[in-house]
Each structure stands twice: as structure tokens, then as C-alpha cells.
Design brief:
This protein is of the alpha+beta class. It has 15 helices and 16 strands. Helix content is 39%, strand content 19%. Strand 10 and strand 11 form a beta hairpin. The protein starts with a strand and ends with a helix.
């Protein structure tokens, strides 16, 4: 195993670990092809932004191409043995493969004690124990419920995004693992008891000790990166620093991770012993802002020399690139970013901005590939045409490739 990696090798290792480089499909892939992609990533981050499509759908699309979103929904929110995913706090609110459920119980146990959750939620749960228990009893009695459907949801007030007391209680219970997501209506979470949602073979599986669980998640984060710094690995599942450092030492001692130096990186790095470093790494794909390849911004800059920030909550006049800006991975490098919007009523994919990286030397090749990606994306989203509405010179050139 190499002790020093070039920056190019690190980039290729990262892409391979994240599942890029395989065949991407034009026809809809079924669950049997969706599942391995999600398993390789380890989670899908959820977010309410829906300008293009719900963001948790996009990472799988970036890796395997077109697939049946209904198949993903069915496995995320199905009942009984068909369920393959569960929702919990991992990187942020995320969908995770069921085999990670036991590994997340340490976080649930900490949350139940008020550790590792928002202080306002913990304080509410401590001061309103009777109400919190009544919410659990109501779900047990009545079945799956949204917060607004509780007998006594309360009124919206306070600093927690205007949450009423019912929502606050349910969020505490969700953190603590006493309720989970039974389904979602639109993006509204409908809560249910874990024993009615999580298959019995998973719910009844032994709960690892906290040390063992964090070590397993540390390894999973390292494998998902290929090569990574300590902070990269911690960030993937938002693991606590002291325990992760201990886990890293143990994983190095047993040979599962290898300490390496990477050209241009100031921090020490770890290479998974089973990591693959392809001889070539030239995948092309549009990426969600919440794609695990780019969600940790310091790593994105370190690997791809690509400065990327979310601008959703920035007032329009102060945005640099736009609202929903997707990095464009072209032949293994982040060469551009595109501001996109799905106009569902008109059946149109709107291109509101196109921006190339300053270091790009062959814009025509990039634009041709981007046009092809936009065509495939529009078809997958059920949009009949593409409208390049931006007026900057690069957009004018893109329009020639799209039409």
C-alpha cells in the first residue's frame, strides 16, 4: 500500500469510493440497481429545497443515471420487509440503509439523555415529560401521525422555527429513537413507532456498545471517502471528535486504515485498505448541492480546487451564482456550475446561469457534455424541453449545444 498519494490519485480514489465511474442508464433502473449505489454512499441527505427535485433523489441519479424514484420512495417508506431505508440524523436528516440502524442507537441513547441535540428541544423534553409521554401514547393508540394531527399540538411560538409543542416533542422523540418516520406526505414527516416501521430482524438486532458503533461508523465514513482526513471522516456521520480519534488509532493498528500523506494536503490522511485507485477517473455528472462528494466544502476545495457555497438563504441581489447551483463534474473534475430550476407547469428545465471555472481550458468540450447531461436530466424529470435563459456568453454558447 502506498504511503504517499499524488493529488490526482486522491481525486480518483474519492470518485471511485463514492461510486462514480460505472455505467449510467438512460432507461429507468429498478431497486436492485438503486440499492448498491445508496449502500456505497451510506446515506442520502434530506432537504426541503425542491426547486429542481427533492435533493435526496439526485446523488443516486448522478451515479447510475435514470432510475425509478417511486422505487426509492417505496423502499424508504414501505411497511414490513419491503422497507430498506430508515430516516435519522446522520450527516443531517438522512435516509440510511437499515443495517446502520443498530449503529445509530448510541446517538439515540445520548439524545434521550439530552446530549448531542439542540438545547431547546432537550429543555422542553425535561420540562414537559408528561406531555412527551402522552404524545408517544397517542401514536401508539391512533397510529402514524403528523405533528399537526395530534390531539393537542399546541400553537406555533418560540425560537425553534416556529414549532408548536407537538412538533418539539416529536422531534425529541425522533432524536431519541422512540418514534421514527413512517412516511412522508410531500415533505411532511409522519411519525410512527419503530416497532411498526423497522423490520423485526433489524429492530431486534443486538445494540453495539457506543465505542464499537462509533468505530464502525468511522470505518464506513473512511471507506465512503476512499482517502480522507480525520475531519472529513468525522463530518460524514457527524461523529464526536475524541471517540473518532480513538477509533482511527484502532483501525490503523488493525490494518483496516492506512495513514498516508497526500500531495498538497496539510493534514494527515487515511486510506481505506480496500480503497480502489483507478488508473483513470473521468466520470461526468451534475451534482446536488447535498451530494456527499461535495457537501464538506473544505474537502471539495482540497480535492477539486473548487470553492462552493450554498446560496439558498442569501438574498437574491447578493448571490454570486444563483439559488440552486449544481456543480458539474466533467471527466472527473469540477469544471463548472449551473443554476437550474424545473418549471413543472410548463414542462421545462430552465437554465438560469452557467459559470465555468477560471482554470477551464476547453469550454466547448465541457458545454457539449453539459448539454447532454441536461437533456438526460430533463427526460428523467419528465420535462419536455430545456430553456437556456441566462444571457452571459457561456450560456449563449450552451444554447447552441442544447438546441
Amino acid at each position: 500500500m502506498k504511503e504517499v498519494l499524488t493529488a490526482e490519485e486522491a481525486r480518483r480514489a474519492a470518485l471511485a469510493a463514492q461510486g462514480f465511474g460505472g455505467r449510467r442508464h438512460v432507461s429507468l433502473s429498478p431497486w436492485r440497481q438503486i440499492a448498491p449505489a445508496i449502500g456505497r454512499m451510506g446515506l442520502l441527505q434530506l432537504d426541503s429545497v425542491n426547486v429542481l427535485v427533492r435533493s435526496h433523489y439526485l446523488p443516486t441519479y448522478s451515479r447510475i443515471g435514470a432510475y425509478d424514484r417511486a422505487a426509492l420512495d417505496a423502499r424508504a417508506f414501505a411497511g414490513g420487509k419491503k422497507r430498506a431505508l430508515f430516516e435519522y440524523w446522520a450527516h443531517e436528516a438522512s435516509l440510511l440503509p437499515l443495517d446502520l440502524h443498530p449503529l445509530m442507537r448510541w446517538r439515540m441513547q445520548r439524545a434521550a439523555a439530552g446530549i448531542g441535540i439542540y438545547s431547546g428541544i432537550a429543555k422542553f423534553a425535561t420540562e414537559n415529560r408528561g406531555y412527551v409521554r402522552a404524545v408517544v401514547d397517542e401514536i401508539r393508540r391512533r397510529g402514524p401521525l403528523a405533528a399537526s394531527e395530534l390531539d393537542d399540538p399546541g400553537t406555533r411560538s418560540g425560537p425553534w422555527w416556529g414549532w408548536h409543542k407537538g412538533k418539539t416533542a416529536l422531534e425529541y422523540l425522533f432524536w431519541a429513537g422512540e418514534v421514527t418516520t413512517g412516511q412522508r406526505r410531500g415533505f411532511e414527516r409522519v411519525y410512527d413507532l419503530p416497532e411498526r416501521v423497522i423490520p423485526s430482524e433489524i429492530g431486534g438486532a443486538a445494540t453495539p456498545g457506543e465505542t464499537d458503533a462509533i468505530r464502525a461508523l468511522t470505518l464506513a465514513g473512511a471507506r465512503a471517502h476512499g482517502v480522507a482526513t480525520e475531519i472529513d471522516i468525522r463530518d460524514y456521520f457527524r461523529l464526536p471528535a475524541p471517540e473518532t480519534r480513538t477509533a482511527l488509532r484502532e483501525l490503523v493498528e488493525e490494518g483496516t486504515l492506512m495513514p498516508v500523506r497526500v500531495e498538497g494536503w496539510q493534514q494527515a490522511a487515511y486510506l481505506a485498505a480496500d480503497a480502489v485507485i483507478p488508473a483513470r477517473g473521468t466520470p461526468t455528472a451534475l451534482l446536488s448541492p447535498f451530494d456527499p462528494l461535495v457537501w464538506h466544502r473544505p474537502r471539495t476545495e482540497r480535492i477539486f480546487d473548487f470553492h462552493y457555497r450554498l446560496e439558498f438563504y442569501t438574498p437574491g441581489p447578493k448571490r454570486t451564482f444563483g439559488y440552486f447551483v449544481m456543480p458539474f463534474l466533467h471527466r472527473g473534475r469540477l469544471e463548472a456550475r449551473v443554476d437550474l430550476k424545473a418549471d413543472r407547469a410548463a414542462g421545462r428545465l430552465r437554465v438560469l446561469g452557467v459559470f465555468a471555472e477560471a482554470k477551464l481550458r476547453r469550454p466547448d468540450a465541457m458545454l457539449e457534455a453539459l448539454a447532454e447531461e441536461l437533456r438526460h436530466l430533463a427526460i428523467w424529470l419528465g420535462l419536455a424541453d430545456i430553456a437556456v435563459e441566462a444571457e452571459m456568453p457561456l450560456a449563449v454558447s450552451l444554447k447552441k449545444h442544447v438546441t
